[in-house]
Amino acid sequence: MSAFISSLDELESSAPRHVLLLYSGGVDGSYLLQWLARRNIEVTALQVRIGDAGEVDSDVAKWRASRFGVSLHTVDASQEFFTEFLPAAIHADAYYQGQFPVGSTLTRPLMAKVAVDAARQLGCDAVAHTATYTQNSSLRLSASIAALDHEIAIAAPFLGSQVSRDTKVAVLREAGISFDTGVYSVDANPWARVIESGSLENPENILDETVFTWTRDIDECPPGGTEIELTFAHGLPSELDGQPVSLNDLVALLNELGGQHGIGRFSGLEDIPFGVKNHEIREAPAAAVITTAHRALANAVYGMREHAIRATLGQEWTNLVVHGGWYGHLAQSLSHCLVELDQPLTGTVRLRLRRGTAQVLRLRSDNGLYYSRFRDSFDRSMGAYSYGPWLTQATITDAVRSGRNGR
Predict the structure, then answer these.
(1) Which of 39, 54, 129, 231 is the most buried (most CB within 10 A)?
(2) 94-124: per-residue pLDDT in tens?
(3) Which CATH number fits domain 188-302+344-364: 3.30.2350.10, 3.40.640.10, 1.10.10.60, 3.90.1260.10?
(4) Left, alpha or beta for 262 (phi > 0: left; psi -120 to 50: alpha)?
């Protein structure tokens, strides 16, 4: 069982031999670096890069770590994000409580995996992170590290030790490091940009729309909008306007295009383990467009019970991974099931992107169950049935599918 350190006092009294700190280069991580350095605790900083959405580049993070005599290791985990983590979210239509696309839910277990691998290579006996009790990221990181390595210690000192952001910034300024980050905290990956803190903490406040950088205000969007076609193969987008495109390129393109048309702004409250809710603002244009198309195609292809069960499994998987269960057996099993359920989800969806909306204009799927595809043959086959009490919706769907698949 992994040892768990939940405060700065515990970290000082039970200091690990060599700490690997997950470090983005921001205020919280830099503060903890100087705290560890002052106590002569050996520490290595690890920056996990996922796409180009990070708020602090590697050169800046390296310089800040060096101010405390700490070396920075940078690992680019973008490929694994786009081949394993993001596809799982697309298959699940992963929106938190149906409100907004998940964001750090996808990156935290990946960061934990990279951290555990690096800690083993460097001989570290502890992995540390700076998430607080108001962030589900604390649970996602800690639970993922524990699932991946039962022996390594986990240090989450800001769970039990509260240090204000102003205090951290002041201490770092004395050490020669200044931050021009304003009052908001930003966590960004290619799928979502999440903004919190400051006036955003209270949902009773009027939203400060200056926090948005990926998306235009709808009053500033092109009036006519634009139309695109997304083609899916086995549940994942594979073409844009008839041209093959990789998932990472597609996400970048749709973030830009969707953002130009004001698509993908979200606001909502997320439950944390201690009974209160954390207010978050996020923008995720590509996620909004892809999920809209994916859901429309699913509605066309799945039978009634398939559609309902898939939606339930997708929501259950989302709930599990939001609260740190990515590497658990149940979440892994549900993810495999969702991939299998998505096998017939192949087809093309045309959408109009205009003033904050992604409207489905048409869709086509060779696996679609919509009546117009089967009008004559379906009418003839229905005429051949004896309508007894054994006839169910599943029976009809299976009959249609048999004809659809040429059986």
Answers:
(1) 129
(2) 999 999 999 999 999 999 999 999 999 999 9
(3) 3.90.1260.10
(4) left
**How many C-alpha atoms does 14 have within 13 Å on its Cβ side?**
12
CB-CB contact of 68 with 39 (8 Å):
no
* Integer angstrom CA distances of residue 75 from 117, 163, 402: 11, 29, 49
- pTM of the full structure: 0.90
- Closest C-alpha to 340, from 319, 318, 314, 365: 314
Pairwise CA distance, residues 327 & 272, whole Å = 19
User: Where in the chain are the domains?
Assistant: 4-179, 188-302+344-364, 371-404
Burial class (CB in 10 A: 0-12, 13-18, 19+), 295: middle
What architecture is domain 4-179?
3-Layer(aba) Sandwich (3.40)
